[in-house]
Write a structure and sequence with these properties.
globular; alpha+beta; about 30% strand; 5-stranded mixed beta barrel
């Protein structure tokens, strides 16, 4: 009986970890880390994550949000995307500082993006390597 319980715990734990790495439900793993506090944020900072979520708001050509409120950035990443579409985003989690992101990734935010992304200063964001629409 003890072996069955231990096996069940291991399987459940593996499923939880897999869910956190891909993001699940409305919240993304990035949002979960921010809510959990500084230790969780530090643990995910610089990590590559894969999120599967709905596009909430296309801000401009270089930025959109997914999940409840995760900012996704990358040059020209919104081309062909629409609000409400399911996407898979793979990228690196970093602390969003507009000037640093513009310099490090060569992004040039338009006026709409400039006024919106300022709300995310110092929050975690995902710099996307790949954005793929899901069926």
């Amino acid at each position: 009986m003890a072996m069955t319980s231990k096996a069940g715990v291991l399987i459940a734990g593996s499923a939880l970890v897999a869910g956190l790495l891909t993001g699940c439900g409305e919240q993304t793993v990035v949002e979960e880390a921010q809510e959990a506090g500084p230790t969780a944020e530090a643990a995910i900072l610089g990590e590559t994550v894969t999120l599967q979520a709905e596009v909430q708001d296309i801000i401009g050509p270089n930025s959109f949000t997914v999940g409840d409120d995760t900012l996704v950035l990358g040059e020209g990443i919104t081309e062909g995307l629409e609000d409400g579409e399911q996407v898979q985003v793979t990228g690196t989690v970093r602390s969003f500082v507009k000037a640093d992101v513009e310099r490090d990734y060569g992004l040039d935010f338009n006026d709409d993006e400039d006024s919106f992304v300022v709300e995310y200063e110092q929050d975690l964001a995902v710099v996307a390597d790949k954005v793929q629409k899901l069926p």
